[in-house]
């Protein structure tokens, strides 16, 4: 359940940490799937983006039923429904794994009203709505100073992005208004792409392991390719809806929304 404090925090920051979404057993199971399907090697990774200390590939939601269950995990669907509306859909997904020294060469990017209208944050009469948004699942801790996801809290509502210093945007100068949230394995972090965000170099001894499931309102698509539910392991009716292509009129709502209206 999304609390009033959750809405306050998300509106204030542009992101919210959802603690303990996954159990220890779920984290262990997904890490085992990662070890089996995605080679723990930074030397030879065929047909994948590989930059020496970064491993990344897409459609991890198809790897295994446990990865598929993340699509509509009960710990995160209330947040998707609350912040994207009842017809939310999965737009695309991928993983980011990094070893110590890993750097994806990103700069702080994003911001309100960018990417051809796919990235936005709006509030009206107590209702929050976002464009493309991200649920990051963590399968390893990200402690203070470890690196990984970083952002400028509150920038999803900024009116002065053109004044954002380039040296801060490119991580050449550190300022306290750029933060790296501290999370534990099993946590999830939901943020709007309207938030200025990026990736700091990874400094921890252990491997960074994250899945990024990116959702949008049901009528919007950022990705140029769509999902085929037949590629999945006996998807539920709700998963089929979430995996369906973008549409507007007549799009079915989430099962939870139907229940809450009864």
Keywords:
single chain; 22% strand; 262 residues; disordered C terminus; alpha+beta; Jelly Rolls
Description:
The model is unreliable at 45-50 and 257-262 (pLDDT under 50). The chain has seven helices and eleven strands. The protein has helices spanning 4-13, 24-37, 65-68, 77-84, 166-169, 237-243, 255-260; strands at 15-18, 49-50, 54-58, 89-98, 121-124, 127-130, 133-138, 148-151, 188-192, 197-200, 208-216. It has a seven-stranded antiparallel sheet with strand order 1-9-7-11-4-3-2. A two-stranded antiparallel sheet has the order 5-6. It has a two-stranded antiparallel sheet with strand order 8-10. It is of the alpha+beta class. It has one domain (4-260): Sandwich (Jelly Rolls). The longest helix has 14 residues, at 24-37. Strand 2 and strand 3 form a beta hairpin.
Report the order of strands and helices.
HEHEEHHEEEEEHEEEHH
Which overall shape is indicated by the principal axes computed on the Cα atoms?
A: globular
CATH level 1 name: Mainly Beta
Q: What is the makeup of the main sheet?
A: 7 strands, antiparallel
Radius of gyration: 18 Å
Low-confidence stretches: 45-50, 257-262
Helix content: 10-25%
Brief digest:
The radius of gyration is 18 Å and the shape is globular. The chain has a single domain (4-260), classed as Jelly Rolls (Sandwich), CATH 2.60.120.620. The chain has helices at residues 4-13, 24-37, 65-68, 77-84, 166-169, 237-243, 255-260, and strands spanning 15-18, 49-50, 54-58, 89-98, 121-124, 127-130, 133-138, 148-151, 188-192, 197-200, 208-216.
